[in-house]
Design brief:
The structure holds two protein chains of two kinds. Chain A is of the alpha/beta class. Helix content of chain A is about 35%, strand content about 25%. In chain A, the strands form eight sheets. A five-stranded parallel β-sheet of chain A has the order 5-2-1-9-20, with helices on one face. Chain A has a four-stranded parallel β-sheet with strand order 13-12-11-17, with helices on one face. Chain B is mostly helical. Chain B has one domain: Cytochrome c-like domain (Cytochrome Bc1 Complex, Chain D, domain 2). Chain B is about 50% helix and about 0% strand. Chain B has helices at about 1-15, 25-30, 50-65, 70-75, 80-90. In chain B, helix 1 (about 1-15) packs across helix 3, helix 1 crosses helix 5 and helix 3 runs antiparallel to helix 5 (about 80-90). The chains are: A alpha/beta, B mainly alpha. The interface of A and B includes residues 332, 370, 388 and 413 of A. Flavin-adenine dinucleotide binds near residues 32 and 356 of chain A.
Amino acid sequence: MQRREFIGGASAALALSRTAIAQTAAKIVVVGGGFAGATAARFLRRANPSLDVTLVEPNASFVACPFSNEVLVGLRDLDAQRFGYDAVRADGVAVATQAATAIDASLRRVTLADGTVLPYDRLVLAPGIDIAWNALPGYDEAASQRMPHAWKAGEQTLLLRRQLEAMKDGGLVVISAPANPFRCPPGPYERASLIAWYLKTKKPRSKLIVLDAKDQFSKQRLFTAAWKDLYPGLLEWVPLSQGGKVNSVDPAANTLVTDFATHKADVANVIPPQRAGRIAEIAGVSDRTGWCPVDPVTFESRLQPNIHVIGDAAIMGAMPKSAFAANAQAKICAAAIATLLRGATPAEAKPINTCYSLVAPDYGISIAGVYRVVGGQLTDVEGAGGISPADAPPQTRALEATYAEAWFRTITGEVFL
Amino acid sequence: MRAFLAALALSVAAQVAHAADMPAGASSCSGCHAESAQAQSPVPPLAGRDPAKLVAAMRAFRSGERPATVMDRIAKGYSDEETAAIAAWFGAQARR
Ligand SMILES: Cc1cc2nc3c(=O)[nH]c(=O)nc-3n(C[C@H](O)[C@H](O)[C@H](O)COP(=O)(O)OP(=O)(O)OC[C@H]3O[C@@H](n4cnc5c(N)ncnc54)[C@H](O)[C@@H]3O)c2cc1C
């Protein structure tokens, strides 16, 4: 009592300045330094330079998936996909080169692999996807060394590339494509196109079969028309309704089994079922589907307060899982967090998604969407978006291939450079 | 109509204070339109451009008057008012 009276004046002043600091120097932890997380960290600092932002990412450099299908077929080096975090640091973000291993949502803290504990006012989770091992019977981590997924860029990309290069002319390549939702809806079909281009150019007696767990896919009309044109007799797509769904794989025999047939491949690329990165489950923000439902305005989790989820891990309606969408969501989420921290209400955003695909090196097509909030979900704005025209001349396809590369330079510049 | 939109663009510009207050849609544009004029891209930057010209370009994309590979599909997602707010915001950004 006496002591309190003695320091009363000073401690009141101290308490006051503490609240002022707490308001301006709020602690934000971002887990995952990919397209979503690295963007969010930088834009948080930009929205409010006094925010204390830490980015948690186990890898010293990031390997980007977009354009990794070009790496597979020798059109590009993997080094062109690699980005560091120097520019993120230069923006005043503290980068912890560690994996997050535990999250306590009630105490609001993140534990890293080295035991460091980071308290937060707001947490942004951007862990991307994990492969759902064994969801496709026979496909576990060991199987991916024989039948690469190459759905996380890096060693897997190089492994599949080596297998394609080592295959004899006249060989059979089989791609297994998963059911929705998964990372990059047009990705398997861009990959099929570029592998077909590679085979046609280098190993013309070979064949490519796409076994699909779906009857419909992104930009289907454009892909199928281009395949008929460019790769007749070389590329065969087998939809779900014709027995395309792969029920199991056997890595020892390199076989993929459907209801009707056992396909023995020379090169097998299994694009397996996926779910949100494991840390999302640990944090309690993923649901039975394996993905994380979020509010479409703030990207705050529907399951845990003060945790926001962006990028591939999140679900909020019609926006697909793409690097474009991850970057767009991150910018909106960063602005929303800055707004929330100053006690205001974030406005609804109207984000865009665009995914370019290459059907051949000089043949680009795209799908675009504009989204708005309807009933707590992001929904397509009617009359906007859609795919490239079906009847476009070759010059337009070439122009879109140029824009595709420009997009990659621009987006990786905004996120990492 | 053009004059009205330009006036609207200006009045919206005056209200923009916080970076966090970007109008709906504006934050997605930099996915393709690089913020830095140094970026190697055939897609032109938008920062520091005359809002009235940006609005006019968006209207022409939307109507199909101006040919486009992708902007026709994107411009159709925003009303005149939303487009004006986006244009005003970019107009107020410094060129980098
Ligand atoms: C072949 C292929 C082609 C593609 N092409 C395109 C394209 O043309 N256009 C397009 O828009 N998209 C494309 N995509 C999709 C795109 O790659 C993803 O949508 C995008 O990477 C998602 O971003 P993200 O930040 O959510 O996840 P990621 O970019 O995967 O980043 C997640 C990060 O989180 C880190 N992380 C995970 N767990 C933890 C943890 N516990 N602690 C700390 N860090 C953690 C990971 O190390 C990783 O760096 C393609 C994908 C593939 C596979």
